[in-house]
Predict the 3D structure of the following.
Amino acid sequence: MYQAPRGTSDILPPEQKYWSYIRHTASSICQLYGYQRIDTPTFEDARLFVRSIGESTDIVEKEMYSFEDKGGDPITLRPEGTAPVCRAYVEHGMHNLPQPVRLYYMASIFRYERPQAGRYREHHQFGVEALGAADPALDAEVIDMAWQLYVNLGLKGIALSLNSIGCSNCRPRYLEVLKSYYTQHKESLCPDCKRRLGKNTLRLLDCKTPSCFALNEQAPRSMDYLCQECADHFNQLRNYLNLLNLPFSLSHRLVRGLDYYTRTVFEIAPEGETGAQVAIGGGGRYDDLIEQLGGKPTPAVGFATGIERLVLNLKKQDVVVPALFPLTVFIAHLGQEARDEAMKLTSHLRKSGISTIASLSDKSLKAQLKQANVSGARYSIIIGEDEVKSRTVTLRNMAKGEQQTVPIDKLAEALR
């Protein structure tokens, strides 16, 4: 028996209302903030992600779905959304547009990970990217946008964590201090962190293994090693967040998992929860990435949120989500003439903009009305021999149990 591949899932009809709700809310937020949609290919040149994400990251080393196509070109299924948007920004000369360019996407993301709640090998992201401005006001705008998305979805008890990891000028010194600290405690590190120590020291701060977590709490803080420009940027960002009445806490262990981040990094998660898969969204600034991909020096900032994880949190908090286009009419019929009339009436109502289905069964009226009830239709229409002769139907309100006789040529008007 065939099954969906491990780490993937079917989004069945009862689940679709959550997805539609999230997509609609996200699109509405983007419209309010002046962001336009962009869609990039599902697969890209593999070198794009190696260059942008970093060779020593878990994503590049362990998680990318990469292969050679029939032309021998290295191809990777998209493991994250920012690098493709930056590639499109460079390729299509968007630096010639008024800056910053504000973009958003909704896309499938592919990573070969151990499947667990909120983490899948194919998952879906909503993300925004603001490219072309270094002003910390833009950082504040993106963070505010993320926060308002979760508030508008109806999520409660969320918390914003904030950090600055510096820039290419001040970070090297911090990394030296950090590496020295962890080298002194190397024997206490987990195997993954021992490997990262020589390749990607910053990622040690994000380890959730108990032995490493205790060390991370005492590790040197990047905020203490910022250059003046980065310190001013971070101070101004915090001032803007206060002006926007956005509560936040500083977290020196917050670094994010991709090498391209500079300065601002942030995450939003349910208050009081801990663990590797708690955050519902996050992002930060990546001022060097577009230049690394062959473009002009272009500061940029963005964030992304996993849709599957949002669905989990909506259900966990019992957020009421509106139903998707509830069915209006179910037509039950008795006899062949009535069945023919039901087919014509179904077509007429649909063309009048009224969602309608007719029974395909010759079962009893009781059985058909039971099916109407299961379908969720607001009204049922009953057609029998008498109704065919009199050119009328019996219209029943399924919620109230009330019914009335309505001429067929007045039915659409009555339903509206």
User: Anything to note?
Assistant: The chain has a mean pLDDT of 90. The chain has two domains: 13-170+226-316, 329-415. The radius of gyration is 28 Å.
